[in-house]
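I would love for you to help me understand the pair of lines that follows before we discuss the fold together.
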Amino acid sequence: MATLKDISKKTGVSVTTISRVLNHDDTIAVSRETNRAIFEAAYELGYRPPRMRKMLEKSLVIGVADWRILVDGRESSSINSLRYFAESAAVNQAVEFVRIAQGEVRPVDGIIAFSDMTAEEIERLRLSSPFIVFVNGGEQCRAYDQILVDLDASMTRAFDYLINKKGIRHIGYISGWFQGDGYVIGSRRKSKVVSLLKENGLYNESLVKIGDFSGTSGYRLAEEVLREPTRPEALIIGSDSIAKGVIQALSDHAVRIPADISIVIYQDIQTTQLPSVDAAMILAYPDILWQKAIQMIIELTRGRTEQVITVISPQLLFMEQ
């Protein structure tokens, strides 16, 4: 069995600090990054605090139905991360997670489901559990608990910042597009950006570049934008996974951020470690989203019957100096 010393070796944090964090000692001040690293290392190594060992017999199992936000099968979040969120959202409740594949029936206590689903998919989910929380679900999901991420408002905020605060007139957009089985990832985001560009009389088709959701694609699309006759003064990047490649391409071509091109990055539920850069971030607060979803599932399993709808408004964080 893993020990606190094993976690200390993996994280570089003292055994005393690790013990206090894992036991939710509110008197200790550590950064969010350190807190998360400790919990993820603990679960990766299989360590359970004594209080958690006692609760395992009544562990809550939550299914994650996220096939509609997966690109080429890549996971949108790690199970270790979800366990960290559960620790933060439910201190006195042991929570375990399993993935539910499209069409799969897997008995669980509750389900967190992402994006719009068909009536048939929902009925299939109900065979696994009647307690479902949808994140950005469509019309078919309206009878269930909902968490809605207000992407439109955050994009409008980003345009106000670029156009009215910085006086920028040439704006490009780089993002991804993925066609799944009966669904598309990336279409809504592109439609909103194009709509805002047209509303402000700034639409230039040659500055809108769509590829796949990868850093390699971001690099290639950034190079294409830089070759256009009208070089953008700003780039809105629709995914943090793409942003990594865009940032590298700008650096390789000696384009300074933000002196030459300002960038605004939409940070997805999937979080990618980006290089240090002076940028603005549209942050969807994945921590809050997961924690709220877990809390809603727990409430449903404990007898809550009224529907709950929570709206999360992504914030525009100004990282530029």
